Input
Amino acid sequence: MRKTVNYFIASIIMVLSSTSHAHFQMLYTPDAALAKGQETSWALIFSHPFSNGYPMDMGEPEAFYVVHDRGEDIPNKTTDLKKHLEAVQWTNSDNESASAFVANLPKSITRSIGDYNFVLTPSPYYEAEEDKYIQQITKTVINVGGAPGAWDQPLGLPVEIVPLDKPYANWVGGVFRAVVLSNGKPVPHAEIEIEYLNHDPLLEKNTFDPVGKVTPPQDSFVTMSIRANAQGEVMIGLPKAGWWGICALDLDDGQLYNKKELSLDAVLWVRAYDM
Ligand SMILES: [Cu+2]
Output
């Protein structure tokens, strides 16, 4: 009985503490800098990347596509990827699961050299605790063959984090800069959350690696909070190899969804490599 009560209390504490961690839309693929075109595997999970906290149900995404850019004078090419989506149940190591999506993209998608901006517009997620909807428009940029494209150009999304450094080519120990846009305009002092992808998605198992790479000294280190500067620019350090998520919160102008408040957020994933 005592054990049951303790377990019950522990569950409550876990729920309370996980809700204080940032919800993060993940648009994951293992590698960001590919030597040549190849098949790529993706996981689209709405989760808590640092803590391996409970995942949240994703509805069918509103949009999932890739914009390929091969540099000057060649027009961008947009390829819709929704037909490649496969609905799955994604589980964390506490056996909490939620609906998510995976995509195995054929080599033809990343056949040529240059930058590939993958964009996901998930359907709005209802957050009961705050009685509002959250929609995180998410970008992951990868490169094939080292030929730079227009990684520094906005894609014209309603809300967007635009890189000021190549998001797919960062050494550990470097910094990464970006500017936060809403309707194409910088957002001064935007509220930003940063999370390190501490538990790698295991794509063949639809679950996260139960072993985290780092242990935080305290809860403030799980989701780091910063503010953009007066020009809407953000700068973060990259102290460890892997993926870093940057989320700019609530960039809309009081938008509603189903007559409730909608927080329209922008997420960018940045990859750091060991030197
Ligand atoms: Cu959360």
